[in-house]
């Protein structure tokens, strides 16, 4: 028993360290001027807007069938549950203990995409997932299911991140400051629209459109007119309706669109056949179109973690130069305690009870294992982008960067959570 636990812990520790090393490679890329902050932001943007939707299309679509779509319902409910509970804990902590507003999104939004996906890939090489395989199951099938489970969780997390994150970070801002930020943002949009319409041939650079000048000018004029027409129509909508529509529009993000496309391709039998079946079984698109989308989707997992390393390196450099204040240990320990101790214990216990005492979960140990891991881990790196959107001060943004640095440095602690989830899932099998 002791040898089995030690072997599982070492395997999970190796997987966690491999993730930390990938982050370290991003640090090296920044240290040696191969990637800077501007480049990492562009990479992060293309990861979220192109690579992650492509990954969702192929993973969710290939795993989703008309007769197996219900297997993802518990994940959707579980994801909403632990995120909203975390938001509640954060709001109470901010109000009662007077903690900074960034504590709430740091508790609510953990890394649900690149980190767990890379962890699952690393666990495959250690062999400890073999203990969760059932009759007729294989490691490759189990890994594919685990990735699709994490991606569905990531879909919920990303949707709520884009919709709630900036609002939670701006919770302690004064109303006048928020109004001023809105006016500045609107002025920038008006300026961009007017400026685009005034571009001429003399302003050509490496970012100039390849369209003919006449077409480009007509396009710029059309965009400017459409912007002003849309603004006029928007101003006629009542204030409450504007707020509701703005909130709903935040959920329409690229990952959600990718997941919807994947769900359609998976649930419609003719589309599933032509996109995901083998060629001899009618998969006309699989060998070329599906494979191309899958290849760019796979870029997301590693690139996003490398970007984490670049961002953390930039934060460490600012700390070294003395441009940052000391780490707020109270807030940091509170966040890490919830993310690495409280949620792992609660999630493992809750999933074990659901798997053994109810019929709410499918008889799939990989499902139990991944659900136990979903609420755990360090906060998402997108918190830095949220701070930019919400108009946080430079001191606050630097503090968030330092907390993220400390959180990812502590990520090998996840090995304990992996072992706990592994043995809880094994115990549930025997029940």
What does this structure look like?
There is one protein chain. 75% of the residues lie in helices and 0% in strands. It has one domain (2-174, 188-198, 212-430): Na+/H+ antiporter like fold (Up-down Bundle). The longest helix has 35 residues, at 286-320. The protein is built from 17 helices and no strands. The protein has helices at 2-31, 37-63, 73-96, 103-108, 114-126, 139-169, 175-197, 213-236, 239-249, 254-267, 269-276, 286-320, 329-357, 365-373, 382-389, 394-409, 414-430.
What is the average of the pLDDT values?
80
Largest sheet: none
What is the rounded distance between the termini?
A: 19 Å
CATH class: Mainly Alpha
Structural class: mainly alpha
Shape: globular
Helix run count: 17
Report low-confidence residues grouped into runs of 5 or more: 174-202
What is the total domain count? 1
């Amino acid at each position: 028993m002791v040898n089995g636990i030690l072997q599982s812990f070492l395997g999970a520790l190796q997987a966690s360290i491999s993730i930390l090393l990938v982050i370290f490679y991003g640090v090296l890329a920044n240290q040696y001027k191969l990637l800077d902050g501007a480049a990492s932001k562009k990479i992060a943007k293309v990861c979220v807007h192109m690579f992650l939707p492509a990954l969702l299309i192929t993973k969710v679509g290939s795993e989703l069938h008309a007769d197996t779509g219900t297997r993802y319902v518990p994940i959707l409910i579980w994801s909403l549950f632990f995120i909203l509970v975390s938001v509640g804990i954060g709001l109470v902590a901010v109000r009662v203990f007077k903690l900074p507003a960034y504590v709430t999104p740091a508790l609510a939004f953990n890394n649900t995409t690149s980190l767990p996906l890379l962890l699952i890939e690393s666990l495959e090489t250690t062999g400890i997932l073999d203990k969760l395989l059932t009759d007729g199951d294989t490691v490759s099938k189990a890994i594919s299911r685990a990735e699709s489970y994490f991606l569905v969780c990531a879909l919920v997390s990303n949707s709520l991140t884009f919709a709630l994150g900036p609002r939670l970070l701006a919770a302690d801002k004064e109303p006048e400051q928020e109004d001023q930020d809105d006016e500045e943002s609107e002025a920038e949009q008006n300026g961009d629209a007017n400026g685009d319409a005034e571009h001429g041939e003399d302003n050509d650079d490496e970012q100039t459109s390849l369209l003919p000048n006449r077409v480009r000018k007509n396009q710029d004029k059309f965009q400017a007119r459409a912007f002003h027409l849309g603004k006029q129509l928007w101003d006629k909508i009542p204030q409450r309706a504007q707020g509701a529509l703005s909130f709903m529009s935040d959920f329409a993000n690229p990952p959600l669109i990718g997941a919807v496309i994947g769900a359609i391709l998976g649930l419609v039998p003719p589309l599933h056949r032509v996109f995901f079946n083998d060629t001899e079984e009618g998969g006309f698109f699989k060998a070329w179109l599906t494979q191309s989308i899958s290849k760019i989707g796979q870029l997301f997992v590693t690139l996003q973690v490398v970007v984490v390393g670049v961002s953390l390196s930039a934060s460490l450099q600012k700390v070294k130069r003395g441009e940052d204040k000391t780490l707020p240990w109270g807030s940091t320990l509170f966040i890490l305690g919830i993310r690495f101790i409280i949620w792992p214990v609660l999630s493992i216990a809750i999933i074990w009870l659901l798997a053994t005492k109810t019929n709410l979960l499918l008889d799939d140990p990989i499902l139990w294992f991944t659900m136990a891991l979903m609420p755990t881990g360090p906060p998402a790196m997108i918190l830095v982008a949220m701070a930019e959107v919400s108009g946080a001060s430079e001191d606050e943004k630097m503090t968030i960067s330092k907390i993220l640095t400390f959180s990812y440095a502590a990520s090998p602690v996840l090995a304990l959570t992996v072992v706990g989830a592994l043995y809880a899932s094994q115990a549930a099998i025997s029940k």
